[in-house]
Amino acid sequence: MDTEEQVIMVYEYFQGGGLGLVAARNYKYDRKLQEHGRPYGLSIEDVKAMLLKTQTK
User: Fold this and answer.
1) How far is CA 23 from CA 11, 26, 52, 54, in A?
2) What are 1-57's pLDDT values in tens digits?
């Protein structure tokens, strides 16, 4: 987790040694959601659009 850049990175350990990057996500807009739950989550752009939509009301 990189708290300065607000990014979570997931690595996979391979037998015999070594790590491989599996996923990375910027959580800047995720932190602003008050309550949200979906089994597989939203894209960063979807979260950003939801926040911008609610802020303009």
Assistant:
1) 7, 10, 25, 28
2) 888 888 899 999 998 889 999 999 888 888 777 666 666 677 778 888 888 888 876
CA distances (Å), origin 3, targets 11, 17, 23, 33, 34: 17, 27, 16, 17, 20
* pLDDT confidence of residue 27: 86
Structure tokens at 8: 């979570």
The 3 state secondary structure assigned to the chain is CECCCCEEEEEEECCCCCEEEEEEEECCCHHHCCCCCCCCCCCHHHHHHHHHHHHCC
